[in-house]
Each structure stands twice: as C-alpha cells, then as structure tokens.
C-alpha cells in the first residue's frame, strides 16, 4: 500500500491541568480517503485535529504529513519545515473563523496572495471559481455578517480549498448551524468526497459519517475505542462503549 498521507503514531497530550486528552492515538489516512471521527464531547476529537494542524502541540508520539515528519517521538521539526508541512493541510472550523472586516472575496484571496504569493488577479480568479462552485458567486462583495451560517461555512470551505491543500480537515463543520442549514454543508463535503479529496471529518452527523466515510474512528476519553468500516462501527459495533454511544442513533 502507498505511504499514508497522514500518519499519527502513539500520540499523547495532557493539558496543563494534568488531564490527559489524547492517550496513545494511532491511525493512518491514505490519499483519496475520507476518515470520519465520531465520539462524545470531550473525547479529544477536536484536540487531535488541532495537533495535526499545529494549533496544539503533542507531548509524545509522531505525526507525519505527506511524507514529512511534523513531530517524531515528541520532537518537532524546525520552524521552516513546519510551515511547509502546514501548507499540505486545510482546516475548516466549527465557527467559520472568517475575517469580519474583509469581504467574502478578500477572505478567500488574502491567504493566496500572502502565503502562496499568488498574483492578485489569479487569486481573485481562483476565488470566484470556488465561489461559483459553492453557489455563492453573487456574494463575493458581501461581508460575513450579511451571510447565513451555512453560507459563511461554504466561504470557509472555499478559503481552505483556495490554498490547494492535500488534505482537508473538518472540525464538526455543522455544529454551529441550524438543522436546515446542515444539509448544504454536508452536500459540499459529499461532492468533495466524490472527487476523491482526502479528508478527515470530525462530525456528530452519524448518517453522514456512515454514508460518506471510507474509514471510521470512534473516540472516547482520549482513546480510539473502535475503528473500521463505517457500517461495521455504526451498525455492528464490537465495544460496549461504542454500543452505548450509538444506542440512540441505531434505534
């Protein structure tokens, strides 16, 4: 099998208050795969994504991204290498994290210009193509406060895609949305999955996780309790902790 695009091995993290949040986490994601991560609040799912995207540091273990070691046995790569590794990853947050004083267009073009050094005309052309794809071309000159939550989240997905990452990571992308807006975001992620975009999706939408993921991880209390195919984990879980969590969904 080809080398994993993301490899997480024996990762551990404890918060400053002494509470362990990740306890010996290991998994791999291969090119074109969608990895779904489910579990109760406080299980370490979001912290795991933040460690992969360098928003949090690990205490022990190794993370490799696109063949480059982000951290090996708890020792991080030099800053210049970390910046290069970061460009392989795009993170979509729960709460959109758009710049409120920037137009939609500027939110998508700014990082292209300053991070990738893309010429402004090209960056704006890329942004408009992505907005067209998201059904938001008419909102290019609007500001985030003028958009619905679902529209803001589609802009944040476009912004992540604009940097041409190898992997998109979603941290509960629908948790801040009203139920009627959730479907439009899940449809975008499904379309990316159909195009074989490599993705890691932390989600509480069980039907979506079952139907869209290639592999599924169930986390609880900072450990991976169970992993396998989505239908195995959701419809025929082996572990009691998984069965308890999924009981309401499977009714």
Present the secondary structure layout.
Elements lengths: L5 E9 L5 E10 L4 E5 L6 H8 L7 E6 L2 E5 L2 E2 L2 H8 L2 E4 L11 H11 L5 H14 L15 H14 L4 E5 L7 H16 L3 E5 L3 H7 L2 E6 L2 E6 L1 H6 L4 H7 L5
Parallel strand pairs: 3-9, 3-10, 7-8, 8-9
Antiparallel strand pairs: 1-2, 1-4, 4-5, 5-6, 10-11
Order of helices and strands: EEEHEEEHEHHHEHEHEEHH
The termini sit apart by 37 Å
Uncertain segments of ≥5 residues (pLDDT<50)? none
Rounded radius of gyration (Å)? 18 Å
Main beta sheet: strand number and arrangement?
A: 6 strands, mixed
Number of helices: 9
Which range best describes the helical content: under 10%, 10-25%, 25-40%, 40-55%, 55-70% or over 70%? 25-40%
Strands, count = 11
Strand-residue proportion: 25-35%
Gross geometry: globular
Major sheet strand order: 7-8-9-3-10-11
Helical/strand content category = alpha/beta
Give a written overview of the molecule.
It is a single chain. Helix 5 (149-162) runs parallel beside helix 6 (179-194). This protein is an alpha/beta fold and 251 residues long. Strand 1 (6-14) and strand 2 (20-29) form a beta hairpin. The mean pLDDT is 93. 36% of the residues lie in helices and 25% in strands.
Keywords:
251 residues; five-stranded antiparallel sheet; six-stranded mixed sheet; alpha/beta
Brief sketch in words of this structure:
With 251 residues, the chain is α/β, with parallel strands linked by helices. The chain has nine helices and eleven strands.
